[in-house]
Amino acid sequence: LCILFLFFQILGAVILGFGIWILADKTSFIAVLQMSSPSLKTGAYVLIGVGALTMLMGFLGCLGAVNEIRCLLGLYFTCLMVILITQVAAGLVIYFQKETLKEELSHIIGSLIENYDPLNDDERNLQDAWDYVQKQISCCGWTGAQDWENNEILFNQSLTAYPCSCSNSSKDSQVDSGFCKLDVPTNSTVTSADWPVHEQGCMDGVEKWLKDNLGVILGVCTGVAVIELLGMILSISLCKNIHSEDYTKVPKS
């Protein structure tokens, strides 16, 4: 049983670390979200709280099992049940609100693209994170390269430049941010279709990644839920087997 409680301490440390990573990360798609969406920051703090609580409960559960302290085992069971219910509720909210979340995300990325300015140092981290996403996923814009036509700087240049992080050209492979100049005849009409950029929008890239890894994600979530249920069953069984006269038993110094 203590081995199981030790596992929960490790699990809590992983959840805690994941929450801290969301807040500290500056170079991925998570960074774009957490710097733009207050809800993701709130979620990160919730993960940190759940991780810390899971670690604490693992310690208290082990202490209660070794010393046969029923109140600690009961507290462990209750907290584990609350965590499990919270996880299920969060999953249901995400599932039933996925269209709303997608719309909010589309608005966040659209605003970022529209106001993208390589000379704006105040938004440097956020813009670099989005450049990193486009470079790594090999995508351009949220729904496609046409999203960049709404950028004020590119619009004022009559779309004769394009985001370097979107480029599919080998000559731009070493440029990770900012705008690259497009070689076009004078006074010619240019659209995003003329840019040497990836055709896939980042929304499709993110959805493809989620679909490709859906089995792993569901497997991990299911495994964690099963282990939590096992911990609840074992803790309540041990609690029932402890005689009532041992209820106030405390560890020896």
Topology readout:
Elements: H1 2-24, H2 29-36, H3 38-67, H4 70-96, H5 98-114, H6 124-137, H7 152-156, E1 161-163, E2 179-181, H8 202-212, H9 214-241
Antiparallel strand pairs: 1-2
GO cellular component, one term: plasma membrane
Protein name: Tetraspanin
Transmembrane segments: 6-24, 44-66, 72-96, 216-238
Structure description:
The protein has 2 domains: 68 residues; 124 residues, Tetraspanin (Cd81 Antigen, Extracellular Domain, Chain: A). It is elongated. Helix 2 packs across helix 3, helix 2 runs antiparallel to helix 6 and helix 3 packs antiparallel against helix 4. It has a two-stranded antiparallel sheet. It contains 9 helices and 2 strands, in the order H-H-H-H-H-H-H-E-E-H-H. Helix content is 64%, strand content 2%. With 253 residues, the chain is an all-alpha fold. This is Tetraspanin. Belongs to the tetraspanin (TM4SF) family.
Index terms:
about 250 residues; mainly alpha; Cd81 Antigen, Extracellular Domain, Chain: A; two-stranded antiparallel ribbon; about 65% helix; elongated; Tetraspanin_EC2_sf
* CATH third-tier fold name of the largest domain: Cd81 Antigen, Extracellular Domain, Chain: A
Rg, Å, rounded: 25 Å
Number of strands: 2
Helix run count: 9
CATH architecture of the largest domain: Orthogonal Bundle
Secondary-structure-based class equals mainly alpha
The domain tally reads 2
Spatial gap, N to C terminus: 22 Å
Strand order of the largest sheet: 1-2
Q: CATH superfamily membership of the largest domain, which one?
A: Tetraspanin
Q: What about the largest sheet?
A: 2 strands, antiparallel
| Strand content bin | under 5%
Shape descriptor: elongated
Summarize the amount of helix as a percent range: 55-70%
